[in-house]
Amino acid sequence: MLAATFAASGVRGAADAIEGELGLLHGYSHEPRAEALTAGLGSDSRRLTHGGVDAALVARRELRGAPNPGARVRLAISPAAAMLVGGDDPRKRAPQNSVDGQFSAVFQTAVALLDGRVDWNSYQRIADTDVLATHRRDRARHRRLAAGSRRGCDGRRRRARSNRPHRSTSGEPGTSLSWQPVRTKYEGLTDHRLPDRVADAIAGLASVPSVRTLLRDLRTPLIQEQP
Q: CA-CA distance, 125 to 111, in Å (whole number)?
């Protein structure tokens, strides 16, 4: 907001703040490649665990709840996904912390199957026995499509598939989210520390007469918490 206010007032910044000789990239690399910042923009995806999560949620709905504890799991992911969120790396197979969990397809899929959701609290289950047991039964394979299958309590195989995750997973063009899951994630991330009126204002942002009101609501809980 401060930068936007400066711009509206005519304040000029550095023309090449990122790629210039004294810019951000040169501050972190002797041989920066500015073109890498936009390579594949709009076509490539790095949300490589989302397809497995979506497939797991579909399978869970078909099972009408958490699957049988002894059920076998197979997660098929693309070779590109395997490089970042799969493979035989022990920290992908059995994450040790929340960052590991964010880059572990088997952890994300296991939690989605067991709990029916993946949110910030899911990372508290890194060492839980039921999650670890699901890891061990998961046989991840590298394929062109991201898919998940689960054998149900009745012995029959359940299969769910999320094709081309960058186009078909929740929140992408053509599969837009309704407001309720967005608000649920907002409440989970903020731990209900921000008032409901903030979410209400964001939901109707197009009709908010001034951003001043929204900023005031964002500051209020912080001021109240100060001693």
A: 8
